[in-house]
Design goal:
With 395 residues, the protein is α/β, with parallel strands linked by helices. Strands 1-9-8-5-4-2-3 form a 7-stranded mixed beta sheet, with helices on both faces. A 3-stranded antiparallel beta sheet has the order 7-6-10, with no helix packed on it. Strand 4, helix 7 and strand 5 form a beta-alpha-beta unit. The chain binds pyridoxal-5'-phosphate. Pyridoxal-5'-phosphate binds next to helix 4 and helix 5.
Length: 395
């Protein structure tokens, strides 16, 4: 990349804008000495739950762990089938494998690229236990249809909202609609930290307590509660005597080391108040791309009526994708492909023996879409340059 290239995403500009605030909070935590969980994490969890309109939030190590822990807390066990989209980042499917369950891929729709509810219906079997929709690119999946299918078949819904912090579906926040919602705070996400971080949202106290237990090695009172829940045993937790020892050294269920650390929580809490402005700026850039990109060879994103998109990425499609990418590159504009291989074609999943012609839309997405630069700090001049360059493409 040349110095003048416009990147797809950029984290330095956001840091520069609020450096004073972020440095202060990070230093305060460094001096304070509480580095993992603690008050900063509690406060951010409360603020994030309130922002999303959810009862509980559990900060975890990253978005991938959020999915694993949420799946387990929703009762997914080895041999269960979980239906998810064929078009997402690997972590979505990997999480299903990590709990010993079987991912069953459903094609996406050709316009929103989110999981197609009609395809979900076709994949439900006696072993299906959950649906894992992904709010891909920053737009929610068709949650009413998905929740109706789940209700009809008694399935859990775990939302992968890693790319959609702040997006809404019929006015409800991404991640707050299903049994649990999972977020990633990877630095380039709409709300990103300065390292790894993730969050689980839920309105269900049992799921909340299970998640809290699992993130700390399955230890302590929440873990004992979870042990009771999983084994059908009534346990009076308040009567348990730890003999003066730390409850964290008493382990009741299999767990993980997956905690949000305090510096990341402090940074995220500081950034949360800017999230709506940043998402609005992303939408403003998207509106400019929508109205001013007039190259007939390019199809622009479709936003379903019930959705407020947050444009984690701005995804366009064209029959000659690789030529367009090369042209953009030669004109100093970096593009990306999200994602070049649909799950059913990933070698890691070859043992699933997916029927290869069942995913025409995911295949189209993998072969024909690209993402243009999208981050709130893009300047008007850069947006002008991207638009005029795209319009000037005549292969
Ligand atoms: C759709 C989706 N799910 C899950 C994840 C995993 O998040 P993390 O990188 O924080 O583990 C990502 C991250 O890129 C993602 O895009």
């Amino acid at each position: 990349m040349n110095a003048v290239d416009i990147p797809v995403m950029n984290v330095n500009r956001q840091y520069a804008q609020i450096q004073g605030e972020l440095d202060t909070v990070a230093l305060e935590i460094l001096h304070g000495g509480q580095y993992i969980l603690g008050e900063k994490v509690d406060n951010f969890e409360k603020a994030f739950a309130a922002y999303c309109g959810s009862r509980y939030a559990i900060g975890v190590g990253n978005g991938s762990d959020a999915l694993v822990i949420a799946l387990k807390a929703c009762g997914i066990r080895p041999g269960d089938e979980v239906i998810t989209t064929d078009m997402s980042f690997i972590a979505t499917a990997e999480a299903i494998i990590a709990v010993g369950a079987i991912p069953v891929f459903a094609d996406c729709t050709p316009d929103t690229y989110t999981i197609d509810p009609c395809e979900i219906e076709k994949k439900v079997t006696e072993r299906t236990r959950a649906i894992l929709p992904v709010h891909i690119y920053g737009q929610c999946a068709d949650m009413d249809a998905i929740c109706n299918i789940a209700k009809k078949h008694g399935l859990a819904v775990i939302e992968d909202a890693a790319q959609a912090t702040g997006a809404t579906y019929k006015g409800r926040c991404a991640g707050s609609i299903g049994n649990a919602g999972c977020f990633s705070f990877f630095p380039t996400k709409n709300l990103g930290c300065c390292g790894d971080g993730g969050m689980i949202l839920t309105n269900d106290e049992n799921i909340y307590r299970q998640c809290k237990a699992m993130r700390v090695h399955g230890s302590g009172k929440d873990a004992l509660f979870t042990y009771g829940l999983w084994n059908g045993k009534e346990i009076d937790i308040d009567k348990i005597d730890f003999g003066g020892n730390l409850p964290k050294y008493y382990n009741y269920i299999d767990g993980y080391n997956s905690r949000l650390d305090a510096i990341q929580a402090g940074i995220l809490h500081t950034k949360l108040k800017y999230l709506d402005d940043w998402n609005n700026r992303r939408r403003e850039i998207a509106r400019r791309y929508d109205s001013e990109i007039i190259n007939p060879l390019i199809t622009k994103p479709f936003v379903a009526e019930e959705n407020e998109h947050v444009f984690y990425v701005y995804t366009i499609s064209t029959q000659r994708r690789d030529e367009l990418r090369a042209y953009l590159k030669s004109n100093g504009i970096v593009s990306g492909v999200y994602f070049p291989v649909p799950f059913h074609k990933q070698m890691v999943f070859e043992n699933l023996k997916c029927v290869s012609d069942a995913y025409p839309n995911a295949e189209f997405t993998a072969e024909h879409t690209l993402v243009l630069p999208m981050f709130p700090e893009l300047t008007q001049d850069e947006v002008d340059r991207i638009i005029s360059t795209v319009n000037g493409w005549k292969p």
